[in-house]
Task: structure prediction
Amino acid sequence: MQRIIHGIASLPDLLKGAGCKRLFLVIDASYPFLSIKDAIESLPVPEKVKFSEFTPNPQYEQVCRGIDLFESSGCDSILAVGGGSAIDVAKCIKLAVLAKKGDQAIIPPLVSQRLPIEGERIPFIAIPTTAGTGSESTHNAVMYFEGAKQTVTNDGILPDFAILEPSVLKTLPIYQKKSTMMDALCQGIESWWSVNSTDESKEYSRNAVELVMANWEAYIFKNDDEAATQIMLAANYSGRAINLAQTTAAHAMSYKITSIFGLPHGHAVAVCLPEIWDYMLVNPDKCIDIRGKEYLFGIFQSIATAMGAKNVAEAIASFREMMRSLDLGNPRRNLCTEDSFDSLCRSVNPVRLKNNPVGLDSKAISSLYTSILK
Result:
């Protein structure tokens, strides 16, 4: 069972309780500029080994270098400090180190088998430095293998502790704050309407959506400390929600947009979501959630209410207006060749589409991308 810790002050005691002697510190490019850097550097641990040789979309080969370093250095604990990529790299390293098949455990076909590991053998603490993915509270990780996105899923890679320290958000670049926040909002919405949703996940989803809607303006436009605290908590709730319910079509359709147009993940997801919601609203006959279309429309209304809207149409309009206020525009069709557009349409992961409550065929996907590319 993961523990959520508010504030970094308890980190030394957590490491002491874990019996840490050699700490494997996974960090990204933001680390030198973090407000908590000095606190981490002064941790009373006999030895720290740092690993930062990975890109924002981590590659398998980069993860393997981390695996080799962890094993050769004899580390006994992991602390990941950074955005979703840093935390995901740490998860992949832990899985590969503990699995009998080593680094093969994080690529097809072994990764889909969810190999058993003794996760408690390597204590793992995650400190997110962005408020978006909620990766600190999921058992999923993302990396790229042979040019394709690979989702690594294993219960044993869920961090034992997630430390939420909102002071790290103070100096984030404004565009990164906007994009990551929208990822949290989209995860809250998608997990709520996912066919895999449960009573528990829906409560996490509700908290995520309500917190973002109540605090986004103060967080983005005023750099308010209390708003940052609430947005970081929202991101964590959204992570806990997708850990149970998974994401849906907006995420599935976003990944190739990122690779073709260079939009950060949260921005790419956010341009997809209102178009998909519109489509689902006018195609109730294509509902694939076994709970039925009446149930689904009730969920849509609950999401709208959490967003402060009177009805679903108003909620979708509110989402679009929020994007305009944040100056997060849609990618341009004239920057996309016919081959690139065809590649977009072929890129959608059918597994994630199975989580979407309304079925999408190839014709619908093509039509949606036409709407998304303005």
